[in-house]
């Protein structure tokens, strides 16, 4: 990743360089009261940069001995300096002083998608159906930009709910590009690389062979989309053994439309369009196909989701979700999406 970008874009990094002291001031010495997130990579703090009109930012301080090393840090700085899209998080700048490796992003007021799907406190309102579809569409657009518009194409490699950040209007932006990889060019169909990413989200062919394509990201998208529809984590060891792996639990149900309503997140309380559920689960099923070549391109997924994200005004008494689901024909997923 680093070598490819260096060769193409050397010397064009536009992100601002911050001193460690400046970021200490911005976060009040990385005070616990400013911490807004924590993971294996380190901690994220909310801060204000005085030199940029007191701009509110998110400061990701990487663990010195954490998973994201110097190479991944450099890859993230590179990719977010060269690639810009409304559905990719904006890198304000970075700090690299001695052992300190810190990334400074635009602040995303609504945290991550993960924060709005799982273990919600009673005081927190769950996302409605159309907001979920809007988030899915925007996240897919971010992937589409990486796959189809970036030159050379970029494979994200770590698509998951915690890496999808949400602004004040719940517009999604992909974050955490430390594992991103330059995709195949010319006649090549894949790139071979050490298997990285988060267990449960990795495409089966990538996990078993290390062969990576843009359709590996499509599989990961399907997993996250399934999480958004069901409200279930990809791995949940608190559930019965046959339900712990989301994909393994869902695949048999996806073959029976009469089971679709039982898959939906209970927090939606039945408030979703029956036809929309059919189409959404059809998209998820296509993205999760074991044969990578049979999966759709992410651009096709974006087109399909654009229809689902439109909030239709419903007039008159509607049939119940179960009634309507049970009445649907066995049309292909493509026909569902066209209608």
From TrEMBL:
Residues 30-315 form the Protein kinase domain. It comes from the Eukaryota. It catalyses: L-threonyl-[protein] + ATP = O-phospho-L-threonyl-[protein] + ADP + H(+); L-seryl-[protein] + ATP = O-phospho-L-seryl-[protein] + ADP + H(+). One of its GO terms (molecular function) is ATP binding. The keyword Transferase applies. Its EC number is 2.7.11.1. ATP binds at residue 61. This is non-specific serine/threonine protein kinase.
């Amino acid at each position: 990743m680093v070598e490819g970008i260096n060769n193409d874009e050397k010397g064009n990094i536009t992100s601002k360089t911050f001193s460690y002291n400046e970021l200490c001031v911005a976060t009040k010495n990385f005070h616990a009261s400013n911490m807004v997130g924590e993971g294996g990579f380190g901690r994220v703090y909310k801060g204000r940069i005085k030199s940029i009109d007191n701009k509110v930012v998110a400061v990701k301080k990487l663990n010195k001995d954490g998973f994201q090393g110097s190479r991944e840090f450099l890859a993230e700085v590179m990719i977010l300096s060269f690639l810009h899209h409304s559905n990719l998080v904006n890198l304000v700048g970075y700090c690299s002083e001695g052992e300190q490796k810190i990334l400074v992003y635009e602040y995303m007021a609504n945290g991550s998608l993960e924060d709005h799907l799982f273990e919600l406190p009673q005081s927190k309102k769950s996302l409605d159906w159309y907001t979920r579809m809007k988030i899915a569409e925007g996240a897919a657009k971010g992937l589409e930009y990486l796959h189809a518009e970036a030159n050379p194409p970029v494979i994200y490699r770590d698509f998951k709910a915690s890496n999808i950040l949400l602004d004040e209007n719940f517009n999604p932006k992909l974050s955490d590009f430390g594992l991103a990889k330059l995709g195949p060019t010319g006649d090549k169909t894949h790139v071979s690389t050490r298997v990285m990413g988060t267990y449960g989200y990795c495409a089966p062919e990538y996990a078993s062979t290390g062969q990576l394509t843009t359709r590996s990201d499509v599989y990961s998208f399907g997993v996250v989309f399934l999480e958004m529809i069901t409200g279930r984590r990809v791995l949940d060891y608190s559930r019965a053994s046959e339900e712990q792996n989301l994909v393994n639990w869902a695949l048999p149900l996806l073959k029976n439309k009469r089971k679709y309503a039982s898959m939906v997140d209970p927090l939606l309380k039945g408030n979703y369009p029956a036809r929309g559920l059919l189409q959404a689960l059809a998209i998820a099923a296509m993205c999760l196909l074991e044969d990578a070549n049979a999966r759709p391109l992410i651009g096709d997924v974006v087109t399909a989701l654009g229809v689902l994200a439109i909030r239709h005004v419903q007039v008159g008494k509607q049939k119940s979700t179960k009634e309507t689901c049970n009445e649907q024909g066995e049309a292909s997923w493509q026909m569902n999406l066209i209608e």
